Amino acid sequence: MSGLEWATRRGMGALAEKMGIEFTEFSIERSVATMPVEGNTQPVGLLHGGAYVVLGESLGSMSANLHAGAGRLAVGIDINATHTRSATSGVVTGVCTPIHLGRSMTVHEIVVSDDQGRRCSTIRITNMIRDRD
């Protein structure tokens, strides 16, 4: 089964679905998802900073869980984001790549860009991997 099939079967969770996040590519080495700006904005019309983080955490945590494998679970223990541009319309795209893939910990970087390919946010997430109960 491909990574994208695995992610589709597992599902992204209710929050990611409400925000319109859609995976377009999914593997241990690289995962990509899109999210509409409309419906995820602050009162002044900018994409909400928390929306960037939800996109980043959805990509990073799901990627960490694919890496963890059967019988194991990856859970987020740290996340940070630096927003460098504001998206106001269209769709943003998050590209997730691993920085560290260990037996007990992963670190991923997620770069979120607007429709013009301009970086809007850089997110880093650390996940702890443990055996499922």
Automatic annotation (TrEMBL):
InterPro entries in alphabetical order: HotDog_dom_sf, PAAI_dom, Thioestr_dom
Thioesterase domain location: 45-120
UniProt family annotation: Belongs to the thioesterase PaaI family.
Origin superkingdom: Bacteria
Keywords attached to this entry: Hydrolase
The keyword Hydrolase belongs to this UniProt entry's keyword annotation: yes
Cross-referenced CDD domains: PaaI_thioesterase
The protein, known as: Hotdog fold thioesterase
PANTHER family linked: 1,4-DIHYDROXY-2-NAPHTHOYL-COA THIOESTERASE 1
Organism: Microbacterium bandirmense
